């Protein structure tokens, strides 16, 4: 998109910088100019000057300066094009675009109008929620119990949604207005398309909840988060995705925290609305929170518009470490030499609020200052589960750390980390660099190697076939697998017995047998994993990061469903199947989940056998995931073998993967999953 320079000049000439700045900064006339407290750094005496004649602002304290467009970019975190469109809209001007067709220009204008209309609807609902809060003693008592003052509640625009099913009908006389559903305020249940629009049941999405308005960087309300007053589930509920709201891009509290980023010197990323509000109350107004999702690259990019230092704060338990690991993935592409990224792990018994109340603000500030740098956390994440006293463990770490290191932008930090990684894995930095340059990067689970069709037995000369090892004879006969990894027939070596204990040659183990129901196709391993994890969501929280990545990266609807399940855990915590079923409504993978869960709901569990049933399900899940992980490692072995002759380290990498597979098979044998 190209905006003509002549239009930019006309826009700056027409805009009143005093008016634009005055919307964010309290200005007072001082001679020919206006003065106020600088919004870009903390100060007690005004040094921020705005000139109506020069249409320019300048701070004599920190040196920032610019015109109206520059102010919107710096203060509101907008990009240049976004700032131009925003400013032009304020003065009723149409932005000409040299390389945009009239049809595209019309669509863009329509989209901007739709967004403006939706934010107006949400603002009106926010005003109503704030009025309801004044007459809701239970909600007021909850906020007071969390230490939230009236001043802070006002700053964040906190409100209350009444318990009634159609409370918003008193706010919006036309309760059937499609905008109410499109903005996420109202749910329309038409019983899976059986009812007409007029007959569909409508009711408020948020009921009996403390309401936290979610604002964009311009201060416009784009959605809501609601928290129950008690312990009902789900504890937190967010607005759905709409034309103005995307959880993967927005941060709660960003609008309120922008100026504090410069004052404190860093942005503190927490895990919930109340963390942000409580921290602002306790002297840390520079906190923001993700909205029930893992931290994304879009979140990190947005934060670095306002600050060069970000600290991610997480609980010290296993769930917190997994969330931090995902934040690391989002932050690595922005880890330049001039930025600081740290990871703060609170004691298991504390959140930021309770830590400060027990130990004080100064102790928390010291704790933040001593947080783990990105470089150290990246190394810790990569070496997890790797025994660096063995060649196999060092090779495993080399494989783990490569995609993390590769995601970083080039610079001194990245090159220093290469040397540190090389030292840990006992290679020269140049040798490690050559190794990575000579071999293709690791593929995600579900990649081409793993998805190879088995229409015919693979060639054994390339070591890519099932059951092939250099010291073993190739299998001669095949039988169908009891779990199918795809819709095509899968070839599997027929068991050969040693005469002792009935073990298969080469220590190969057999997949667990899933009872077949009816005449349908046997369930795949991902199918079984879906059924078990939807039946008992708590098992997802107990899985390792490696298994999370493997499942979320599965192709098609399975991977999408597991990714959704992970987001549900972050947003709502552990939920029963009945609650998950409601959340699945209308999603592409709803039929898959319904089909698999209809099998698990076939019969009740006899009384007194619940604990045994859960234990059996946990063992079944562990067994299925072991075989899926073995498939993944096998695919990586195939890649290593394919690189032999071109990469001198390929054979060593193959052997390290084989060592992992041997460990995996030993664990399966010890758990009793191997069959005779």
Description:
It is a single chain. With 676 residues, the protein is α+β, with helices and mostly antiparallel strands. The chain is built from 26 helices and 16 strands. The strands form four sheets. A five-stranded antiparallel beta sheet has the order 1-2-3-4-5. Helix 16 packs across helix 26 (650-671), helix 17 crosses helix 18 and helix 19 (525-535) packs parallel to helix 22. The longest helix has 33 residues, at 102-134.
Number of strands: 16
The neighbouring-strand order within the major sheet is 1-2-3-4-5
What's the story with the biggest beta sheet?
5 strands, antiparallel
Unreliable spans = 443-519
Strand content: 5-15%
Average residue pLDDT: 79
Count the helices. How many?
26
Helical coverage, percent range: 40-55%
The shape, in one word, is globular
Radius of gyration from the CA trace? 29 Å
Give the distance, in angstroms, between the N- and C-terminal Cα atoms. 66 Å
Layout of SSEs?
Blueprint: H1 5-14, H2 17-22, E1 28-30, E2 33-36, E3 48-51, E4 56-59, E5 65-66, H3 68-76, H4 80-90, H5 102-134, H6 137-145, H7 150-155, E6 159-161, H8 178-182, E7 186-189, E8 201-204, E9 209-215, E10 221-228, E11 236-238, H9 254-264, E12 267-270, H10 273-281, E13 287-289, H11 297-303, E14 309-315, H12 318-331, E15 340-346, H13 352-359, H14 361-369, E16 372-373, H15 374-383, H16 391-406, H17 412-424, H18 429-438, H19 525-535, H20 538-542, H21 545-552, H22 556-572, H23 577-583, H24 590-600, H25 610-642, H26 650-671
Parallel strand pairs: 12-13, 12-14, 14-15
Antiparallel strand pairs: 1-2, 2-3, 3-4, 4-5, 6-9, 7-8, 9-10, 10-11, 15-16
Helix pairs in contact: 3-4, 11-12, 13-14, 15-16, 16-17, 16-26, 17-18, 19-22, 19-24, 19-25, 25-26
